[in-house]
């Protein structure tokens, strides 16, 4: 029923996309090589960001937490053992002032986990964030008046 209603709106008839202008812009970028040039610039930028976050996490986190270095994509995963819970990891991230996603939002992980994005911030900021997260896992709970900033 939903598919029939969407198909009846005609949005996908004019070029196979919900936004014809965006589709045309992407086609031009691919055809004239701008997309390849952008990827050639973007890949090393993302690699630097990923490596800064992974490096700081691996250097400062306890051995009971594994840092999964992706070969591609936009996220680093933390997988905890040693009795850590997902709730504990989330509290530590909040304590450090970081926005992360619980691993359980993406399925049923084998171990407590967090997903950390590395695409937006520069390497220096990501390295500081990794250190703050590690520190927050080893520090006592913040005082009740602490506001997370």
Q: Please, could you describe this protein's structure?
A:
It is a single chain. A hairpin with a 6-residue loop joins strand 1 (65-68) and strand 2. This protein has 5 helices and 4 strands. The chain has helices spanning 2-8, 20-32, 34-60, 86-95, 123-138; strands at residues 65-68, 75-80, 101-102, 113-117. It is 49% helix and 11% strand. A 4-stranded antiparallel β-sheet has the order 1-2-4-3, covered by helices on one side. Helix 3 runs parallel beside helix 5. The chain is flat and about 55 Å long. The protein is of the alpha+beta class and 149 residues long.
State the order of secondary-structure elements, H for helix, E for strand. Answer: HHHEEHEEH
Oligomer: single chain
- Main sheet attributes: strand count, strand direction, barrel closure: 4 strands, antiparallel
Broad structural category: alpha+beta
Q: Low-confidence parts, pLDDT < 50 over ≥5 residues?
A: 143-149
Beta-strand percent range: 5-15%
Give a count of the beta strands, DSSP E runs of length 2 or more.
Answer: 4
Order of adjacent strands in the largest pleated sheet: 1-2-4-3
- Helical content (DSSP H or I, runs of 4+): 40-55%
Choose one word for the global shape.
Answer: flat
What distance lies between the first and last C-alpha atoms, to the nearest angstrom? 48 Å
Whole-number mean pLDDT:
87
Number of helices: 5
| C-alpha Rg (nearest Å) | 21 Å
């Amino acid at each position: 029923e939903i598919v029939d209603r969407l198909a009846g709106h005609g949005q996908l008839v004019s070029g196979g996309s919900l936004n014809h202008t965006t589709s045309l812009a992407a086609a031009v970028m691919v055809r004239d090589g701008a997309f390849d040039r952008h990827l050639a610039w973007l890949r090393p930028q993302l690699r630097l960001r990923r490596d800064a976050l992974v490096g700081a996490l691996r250097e400062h986190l306890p051995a009971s937490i594994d840092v999964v270095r992706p070969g591609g994509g936009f996220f680093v995963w933390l997988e905890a053992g040693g009795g850590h819970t997902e709730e504990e990891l989330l509290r530590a991230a909040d304590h450090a002032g970081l926005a992360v996603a619980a691993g359980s939002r993406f399925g049923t992980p084998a171990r407590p986990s967090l997903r950390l994005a590395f695409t937006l911030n520069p390497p220096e900021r990501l390295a500081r964030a990794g250190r703050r997260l590690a520190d927050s896992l080893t520090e006592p709970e913040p005082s009740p008046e602490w506001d997370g900033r």
